[in-house]
Amino acid sequence: MFGLPETFLQITLVENLIGSYRWLWSLSEILHFTGLILLVGIISIYDLRLLGIGKRIPVAALNRLLPWAVFGFCLCVLTGLLFVTGLWANVKTHPMEALVYDHFLQIKLAFIVFAGLNLLFMHKSGMATAVDELGPGDEAPALARVIAASSLVLWLGVVYFGRLVPWGL
Amino acid sequence: MEMLAVLEASGFSMWVKESSTAYVAVLAFHTIGLVFLVGISTATAMRILGIANGIPMQAMQDFFPLMYAGAAINVLTGTVLLTLYPTKYLVDPTFYIKLAAIGVAIIALRKIRALVFDISDAADTDSVSRPTRTLAWTIISAWLVALVAGRVMAYSVPTKLETAAAVLIIVVIAVLGAQLATRMGWVSLSEPDS
Question: Which of the residues A45, A50, A56 would you substitute to probe the B interface, choosing the one with the greatest number of B C-beta atoms within 10 Å?
Answer without folding.
Answer: A45
